[in-house]
Amino acid sequence: MRSLVFFLRLFSWFSLRHIGKHWFQAMLVLFGIALGAAVFTSVRLSVHASLRSFTSSMNHIAGRTEKVLARPGGFLPESLVSAIINHPSVRNASPMLSGYVQHFGADKEPFLLIGIDPILDRPFRSWQIAKGKPRKVGMWLDLLKEPYTLILGGALARQYGYAPGEKIKLEHSRQTVDFRIVGVLAPENLALAEGGRLALTDIATFQEFTGLYGKIDRIDLRLQPEQTAENFQNIVSTLPPGVIMSSPSERRESGQAMIRAYQLNLSILSFASLFVGMFLVYSLVALNAASRRHELAILRSTGASARLLFLIFLAQGTVFGLAGWLLAIPISSFLIKYLLHGVSQTISTLFVRVTVEQLSLNSWEIFLSFMVTIFISVLAAYLPAREAMQVSPKEALSIAEHSEQADKPTLRLAGLGIFFIVLVWPLSKLPGYAGVPLPGYIATLLLFTGFAMLSPWILEQLGKALAPKLRRLGGMPAYLAGRYIRGSGNRTAISVGALITAVALFVSLVIMIHSFRQTVQLWAYQTVSGDLFATTKMGEVNQFRYPLSPEVIRTLTTLDAPVDLVPNRRYFLNYGKFPYEFELLDVVTFLRYGSYVWLKGPSETAIHRLISGDGVIVSEVFSNRTGLTVGDLFRAQIETSLVELPILGVVRDYRTQGGVVFYAMPHFKRRFHDPKWGGVRFFLRNRNQNLDAAVVSLRREIIEKCGDQLGMISGKELRQSILKVFDETFAITTILLFIAFVIAALGITTTLAVLVLERTSQLNTLYAVGASFGQIRRMIFWESILMVIAGETAGFLCGLILSYLLVFVINRQSFGWTFLYGLDLKALVFSLPLIILTALMAALPAIRLVFRQPPAMLLRER
Amino acid sequence: MRVSEKKTVIETKALTRIYSLGDSEVIGISSINLEIAARELVVLKGNSGSGKSTLLSLLSGLDRPTSGELKVAGHDLIKAPEEQLTRFRREVVGMVFQNFNLLPTLSVLENVCLPALLAGGWPEKIEPKAIDLLQWLGLGDRMAHQPAQLSGGEMQRTAIARALINDPAIILADEPTGNLDSRNGQLVIQLLAELHRTRERTVIIATHSNLADAFATMEICLKDGMITDTTCEV
Lengths: 862, 234
Ligand SMILES: Nc1ncnc2c1ncn2[C@@H]1O[C@H](COP(=O)(O)OP(=O)(O)O)[C@@H](O)[C@H]1O
Ligand SMILES: [Mg+2]
Prior knowledge:
The complex is a heterodimer. By secondary structure, chain A is α+β, with helices and mostly antiparallel strands.
């Protein structure tokens, strides 16, 4: 206890006072680490909020369900309910139908309408009508007695301002109908799913509303206690073909796994900012240790143990971590406002639908961010602390400036660095695990570390090679700067290392995003070709499960406008745990106007065989995720049919949810069953007219003839929206990138500032022997130029390697896709000078520090 | 004080430097009147804190006085703009410090060349001269070394060479022996004396040791920032 008090007191004497004197650098470092911690924390908390909302939605909807019966991509016959309910192993069974509908005339944000049998459903889900004034027992039975009644979720009632007894007009792909509101759900259990944006109705009403007579989505089951595997098998064997029994946890877990993988990917990206922040702490603590060597020796000679000095420096790191983390709290609460929405949006488009209404402060996430920040700062202080520990008390006697870094083995360090960089190659060949490109991330870390280890050697070489030329170029100040950089060893190397990291991130992400966007654009124009797309209203959120009616199809096929139709049907399925779409389309007509972006192929025979229905082509994502490729057999249960077809080719596809398998629609109908039209795309036959105007009149004709029954979007709008989603997804990346860069610039500022302060007497000496103010300022400026040049050149190289890793390893392992690699020369040529400029701006505060102490201080005895 | 009939290089009238530390004030030197002729070897004596370094920092153009007049080698250091001060430091004075103040990243030879290079001289012309100086100071075999590899005496001799490279008329040395053992201290004082004798420089040595007394042509005693007439007791 006494020793702890003594330690704290010594720490405050020795470290805190010093930090207080040099508060400017300390603040910069704090700000840097706080930014890093804030980004890390808020990114994780945002994803966590999505994860939580998804999980609770899934749990509330599942209720006490133990098993679920469903038919992939299709519906079950309602008759199955009575058959299964009488099975001896089944305790309870409840049919369910659900789909997204929208409030007529209000915002177009769809919400979930759930159709249940209120009596059969009692054992499965709990929900309550909120206590209002006219409350009678069993009010929910009104759902049964009266058609077109519903119970509204709390959030919807609030948003649209409805009270029980009022009518609400709902719109579905088939019709628009008035529902009477029987009650509002109390905010508990089922009513919490989808953030309260849901409504309950009787299953018969749902069927009438949507035209799904005699059909249901799924049957939820509760089994008799003590089930044997035999009984279980018994249930399965009584099921009609194509009906699959699964547990609700499976869907939940596969969704959770995807969100978690995304969380990890984002965490690692945001970790880059913390990593750069770590450089900052390291540089300040190391400079402290180096510049106060003499004081350390004095402390040692007055009886301080080596361990004590070690602990003092470690404590410095801890204090930075602690204060940085505290400072991160206000920054996070600001950042999170922007991230929460963006992240849930991205998860909804990329993986599973989530509705996040508020942030949940998860104590584990907060603990994690605290530990990570402290750990990183302590780790950053570890090496300097070791160095401080090795100061011998004898040095207290020497007066000359100790240039301990004069002969550091830069070459050996560089050799090790190169070794690390070379290791990246074999690592990039290793496979990832469960959507997490671990080897890719390790390779990235090795790459950064390798280049950071190279930087002292690079600086030394730069100083050596350039010093004579610099004299011609920038006179004496440039020459001195070169000499200083050459001999300064680790001091400058640290912040150059941080700059390398930031520039490399920048360059590689610019290249990746550019390649990605170019490829997506190519894909959008070739594969998402078409002048107008039509499908049932809310087709996409309802996973295209409501096909177009025969009358609509008849109308569409007999339009006056000269168009070609490519009907299609998309099934949302799972291959094992991996979600994908099975898309049927009229390939012959499609290939007349559009094409695929082939990854393997295209061979004439592959296209020919696709047209003649011999096999399927699969997307790169599907192939990478399932391991299936050309020549393998694709197998799937689709509605009532078991489909088995060889894979003919692999194409690029960037639709967001999982992979795709394409097959010729007419052949599917012939070989398996009639898939019905889920949607249709129109191609204008005459390509030499004003296409926009033609699309407008086509649309007008369809509305005239079919009424407002279809969801329509022009091909142009669709492709634009694809690119917009793309850009929004990368907005988060860009923010993170920007922050990493700001932190690196702070690093340059700190290093230069510390270098200036530490060299006060050297700079004063220069002044005393005849240097002018201008010459000294120019020297500092040249030092920063050299550091920036070294950081930028090495960072550019590092970034090129990293971009390869990102495009061909990390993206492939985490999303399953790769892109056509393309250097975005324009963006790079334009932005690199900008980076140089920023980094040089970062030098200005340091230059202003020159001569904060008057040169006459030289004559003061120290 | 002796008044020399030789040409005066340093002339001060009521020279005062007061340091203000927040609200309190500390007197560095106060009302110093001096006339120093060319080619003197002045020993500036006084206890620690008596104002020796303050006076040298004013004479060298490193600092500006609070009040008074100060002329050195024809430069009016009160009125001189910053550019003139820079030129003054390059051409007129050479400085030697107690703690040597060599730049650790430069070699011995480079340290010596530095002032001439800063003044815009050609390396081809400066280097032979620096080598001559170093050889004269007995450092011929140390030219490529880093300062950290030298002994204290060698460092101070390097500093003297650096002070001489621009052929200044005045050498200002502040406690040049303060960090040296007595043998090396003696050597440094002898070198400064030789500069005075054979190279005809004005040399001012601030010290509280007696090593330089034997070579002095003039002695100034400071006490509490003022010149005293009583003999120096240090
Ligand atoms: N930069 C300064 N700020 C405040 N006081 C100073 C400063 N430099 C010198 N002094 C004060 O001026 C007086 C003279 O100091 P100095 O010239 O260093 O004496 P000496 O060199 O003879 O030891 C001392 O009292 C000292 O504390
Ligand atoms: Mg002094």
